[in-house]
Amino acid sequence: MEDLHYLILKKERFHDFVRSVSEVGKLVAPVPKGFNNFAFEAVTSAGEIALRYIPTILPLKKFFMPQRETLLEFSTGRKGVVNAVVECEPVTIFGAHTCDLAGIQCLNMVFSERPRDQNYLTRKNQIALIGLECNEYCDQYANCHLVNASFPGGGYDIFFTDLGEFFIVHVKTQAGDMIVGAAGTFEKADSSHINELKKMRTQKRKIFNNEVPVDSRQIPEMFDRSFRARVWKELDERCLACGNCTNVCPTCYCFDIRDELDLSLKHGIRYRVWDSCQLEPFARVAGGMNFRKERAARQRHRYYRKFRYPVDRFARFFCTGCGRCTRTCMADISLKETLNELIKESEDRVWKKWL
Amino acid sequence: MEKVVIKDSAYRLRKAKILHTKKLTANEKFFEIALADGELLDHEPGQFVMISLLGIGEVPISVSSSPTKRESFDICVRAVGKVTRSLHKLKAGSEIGIRGPYGQGFPIQILEGNDLLIVAGGLGIAPLRSLIKYVIDNRRDFGKIHILLGCKEPKELLFSDELDEWNSRADLYYACTVDRADPDWAGNVGLITTLIPGVDLDPQRTFAAVVGPPVMYNFVIKELLAKGIPERQILLSFERNMKCGNGKCGRCQIQNLYVCQNGPVFNYERIKNLSEAF
Ligand SMILES: Cc1cc2nc3c(=O)[nH]c(=O)nc-3n(C[C@H](O)[C@H](O)[C@H](O)COP(=O)(O)OP(=O)(O)OC[C@H]3O[C@@H](n4cnc5c(N)ncnc54)[C@H](O)[C@@H]3O)c2cc1C
Ligand code: SF4
Ligand code: SF4
Ligand code: FES
């Protein structure tokens, strides 16, 4: 732990901090929406913010890659012009849990790959991220430890850890420095503060344990053996193909591109909207053939896009363990249960080899 | 919310003009297209472009001409839906938008010096025409060339005038078949697979380039393997739904591969174990 970069914010000054940040620009933070639901929304005072919250209904991707965003603006006719555009505004996001920071790291990798996606990257440059540590599990659906997202692993400008009387604050970037400097509510951390943080992390390591009985390094290999697993067939019968699990996932980024003309038929836009591999037409081609006709194949594709394919392409899982897919599924399909099934089936197969 | 114009967006369009159109069959139309400002498309045989009609949409279409034809390029489009039907209504002089070329085409550098067996089913001739024309224009760089063509009925044959030329060349082996003949048809009748056993080829130095409807692949591959052509030397081009053309939207994925970036041309060895490929 590099002591130099740690500050503290006393709890009684948190209000001042929130006010000062929100006065400079748009500040977004988790707010309670009733029935134990939370959402990232614009706030202006500390009272609106939920410091303890389970993952929000929609993840942070909605700020980086809005549900619907314009890519081109055009006018038709003789003097027609086409412009590639991006709609963006500076935003500071407070309270991102480590799983959601990991989700943004995944998207960063995807959209930085060539050809770079300037819509995403332009917007990203205008967003400051302030993380907030989970000292305990949010609920039983999370599997953040399994995918290495339960402790801070970068992806933030500033990171807050709640230690009761005060937050200990890690400043990582220049953007972070500017926010901290402008707020003027922070003090230097001393060794006693750092020790408290270390104590909390030690305690946390006892609470956060692999949520499914497998060494995460074995997961890619397990998926290599599981393409024809029984569990996909079971999901086929249960899944309603609603696409909720992909909409709420912080690392799902598939999209459709569509055109729209205004009423004059002279101006229009080309925009992209979130799409889902769980919907039937997703993999259908013009000839009418569908390469993932069965729900089993589509569910399998979702899991392979979380636990197998990105391991080769980006050297990480594209699951952050946030648990949103499980929490939202109308058919009670649970990510942890599916992984457990795969582990069981995989072990069965290994056993059979020896018998 | 601020709106910023971005210069280097991957979705930016290149302006292009339709120079010439020609109806090929009831459903397919040929277009010759030039980029505005005389820019070169600079594609490789087997690559595709995204064709944009503003306000209607954007679709991936193979380039049908050889890169040796420089000032303009060709496409051949089957009218199946919104964008392709609207495209069919356009006449010479109309403006369209182009993105690309995209994807991995046929590996020309590897093919040079070898024999080629080209197998085209139906609209599969559209991308293969770019390869055939390239090979004809650089004929001495290649060994023996066999072209096999198949479609459902004689009236669906594409580029029929060019087919006669290929047929009459002494430096090409050419055969054509239809599933169902009509009274005027004097040629072969039967599936395209029936043409393969009769081709006199040296399998070790032959590369097969196969493009056609999804159902064709399994049967054709079986015949090619029976001929003794190594798996690595069988090249297939796949069609998938595509929206971005640059490896992001997820539409074109075959397991861990993206057809728009890793393909559309793949060698059989690389994809033979991917069950989502066939
Ligand atoms: C690499 C590549 C190269 C290609 N090259 C060529 C080429 O050279 N020439 C060519 O003609 N084509 C080519 N294609 C295919 C071409 O891209 C498609 O035919 C085209 O995208 C169809 O677009 P559309 O808007 O006209 O049709 P769409 O409106 O998208 O409809 C296409 C078909 O899908 C069906 N469909 C669409 N939506 C639905 C729905 N909701 N329910 C039921 N059915 C539906 C329709 O029946 C229709 O027949 C290529 C494709 C790829 C990927
Ligand atoms: S949320 Fe559940 S029911 Fe809906 S598509 Fe996902 S797995 Fe299927
Ligand atoms: S797969 Fe489920 S648990 Fe994993 S990141 Fe997506 S929504 Fe969260
Ligand atoms: S077309 Fe979008 S990923 Fe291939």
Write out key terms for the chains shown.
heterodimer; A: about 350 residues; alpha+beta; eight-stranded mixed β-sheet; four-stranded antiparallel β-sheet; 13 helices; flat; B: about 280 residues; alpha/beta; seven-stranded mixed β-sheet; six-stranded antiparallel β-sheet; 7 helices; binds flavin-adenine dinucleotide; binds iron/sulfur cluster; binds FE2/S2 (inorganic) cluster
Bound molecules: flavin-adenine dinucleotide, iron/sulfur cluster, FE2/S2 (inorganic) cluster
> What's the total number of strands of chain A?
12
Termini Cα gap of chain B: 46 Å
Largest sheet of chain B: 7 strands, mixed
Q: What structural category do the secondary elements of chain B indicate? A: alpha/beta
Written description of the protein model:
The complex is a heterodimer of chains A (355) and B (278). Chain A has 355 residues and is α+β, with helices and mostly antiparallel strands. Chain A is 36% helix and 21% strand. Chain A contains 13 helices and twelve strands. Chain A has helices spanning 14-24, 61-64, 98-112, 118-124, 174-183, 191-207, 219-224, 230-238, 244-247, 295-307, 309-314, 324-328, 335-354; strands at 6-10, 26-34, 37-42, 68-75, 82-88, 91-96, 127-132, 158-162, 166-171, 187-188, 255-261, 267-274. Chain A has an eight-stranded mixed beta sheet with strand order 3-2-6-7-8-9-1-10, sandwiched between helices. The mean pLDDT of chain A is 94. Chain B is α/β, with parallel strands linked by helices and 278 residues long. Helices cover 20% and strands 31% of the residues of chain B. Chain B has helices at residues 82-88, 108-111, 125-137, 160-168, 214-227, 259-262, 268-271; strands spanning 2-5, 14-23, 28-35, 48-53, 57-62, 73-78, 95-102, 115-121, 145-151, 173-178, 188-189, 206-211, 234-237, 253-254, 257-258, 265-267. Chains A and B meet through strand 4, strand 5, helix 4, strand 11 and strand 12 of A and strand 1 and strand 14 of B. The complex binds flavin-adenine dinucleotide, iron/sulfur cluster (SF4) (2 copies) and FE2/S2 (inorganic) cluster. FE2/S2 (inorganic) cluster (FES) binds at residues 242-245, 247-252, 258, 260 of chain B.
